[in-house]
Amino acid sequence: MSTTTTDTSPPREQFTGQVGFILSAIGSAVGLGNIWRFPGVAYENGGGAFLVPYVIALLTAGIPILFLDYALGHRFRGGPPTVFRRVKKWLETLGWFQVMICFVIAIYYAAIIGWALSFFVYSFTLKWGDDTAGFFTGDYLQLSDVANGGSWFTLDFVPAVLIPLLLVWVATIAVLVGGVAKGIEKANVIFLPLLVIAFSVLVVRAIFLDGATDGLNALFTPDWSALGDMNVWIAAYGQIFFSLSVAFGIMITYSSYRKRRANLTSPGLVVAFSNSGFEMLAGIGVFAALGFLAHEQGVAVADLEGITGPILSFVTFPAVVSQMPAGPLFGALFFGSLAMAGFTSLISILQVVSAGFQEKFGLTRRKAVLWIGAVAAVLSVVGFSTTTGLIALDTIDNWSNNVGIVASAVLMCVFLVWLLRTSPELRYHLNAVSTVQVGRWWYVCVGVVVPAVLAYMLVSRIVDLVQNGYEGYDETYLLYAGWGTLVVLVVGAVLLTLPRWRRSPDDFVAWPYFPPVTASTTTKGAAR
């Protein structure tokens, strides 16, 4: 797997310490899905009973796959293409597949952050008025009416979306140009505490609103019969998987910026449980607010619509804010939190792309960030600041996440555990540098549980998309925007594998040595 020569690459950037790494990893994991996805998924899948499969999924899939990412990045010292090539040359394409996933996600993820910035400003005057749905899709997004003959793709730009989107890209590029310690780490040290404080204030206020108890009862009252439904368990594994930022390069890249002798498992547990803790906080805040809205409208919480996804954030929650005492303040807290959560995740996503290009093509950090950022910004503006931006975002997100990322995770586990048999080496690495030791149970999780559950999810999703389409969208449109996204991911990964490396990643020795060697041979060279 590795040669007997030493690594000739320049010294790698590093986080300043464990706290900086933990904050950055939490900042990546805590994103938009924690706020707008977890509460609705929990409510629709057994309420309080959902916590049982959720915790089991965290312990048997979330944490094990997080450890897998950490071990890969820390041992083989690079972004996904470098790491997977150092494991086995032909595996480099999987690394570029993860880079392509990150690139595609970044170009639409930035648009949602732009929406949050707009609504942060609108909060101070409650600009959305009484018809929040009409304002979001009509006045704000100016969404094309495809149901009545409107075009599926236009270049009719919407200034209210375009301007904040450009600001998001300027801020993202500025942070990444600063590097790992002075850019990414500093941004997370600032924004993550602000996010926690702002959202906590919002949650505390929400639980004292009239009707909040009804909302919390709706969320946490257990439906134990749901535990007999396989789909509930799949939803739990899906929520854990998507919310932890695993299996598509982020945690591989971040862990590669840690010092050689750096604890991995303890910080990993902190990151995993912090992410889940924030999801619980979001669930309390969101459903307390929904209980208040139901109380004000004189309906049951079960009768409310739009309790998950963008509709929750940009339609339902503005309606809540409009009726809250001191609504403008709490609207600003909510949308400010949404923007900060999204921003810390976006910089982690784009760093994967930047690292991949820096390492393969010998680019400086500044040149890689500026070129990649410029291309991503142009595609982001063209694709998602127009009157068809929401439709494109919804479609591309579905295929890149539910098919692309899940396929990446399944391939990782099958190749690394079953085909190449690298799991003993990776477990050895985790235990050699960490305080919390990883037992043999980890083999079962990453070799059996994760690939089995995710393969089921992947096949089920593909069959459903083939048979039923998606959201009633035009079949031809889905062929290009949906399945075409997968083609772009695969073709891009293959094409990026073909060029020669500016500096060979193969002149590398992984440390600590595996299998363990005698002390007399450890002086023959070690990788940086």
Automatic annotation (TrEMBL):
Pfam families attached to this UniProt entry: SNF
UniProt keywords, alphabetically: Membrane, Transmembrane, Transmembrane helix, Transport
Keyword GTP-binding belongs to the record: no
Membrane-spanning intervals of the chain: 21-39, 51-72, 93-122, 157-177, 189-212, 232-257, 269-294, 332-357, 369-393, 399-420, 441-459, 479-498
PROSITE patterns: NA_NEUROTRAN_SYMP_3
InterPro entries from the UniProt entry: Na/ntran_symport, SNS_sf
Annotated compartments: Membrane
Gene Ontology, cellular component aspect: membrane
Signal sequence segment: none
Membrane topology: Multi-pass membrane protein
Protein name: Neurotransmitter:Na+ symporter, NSS family
Natural source organism: Krasilnikoviella flava
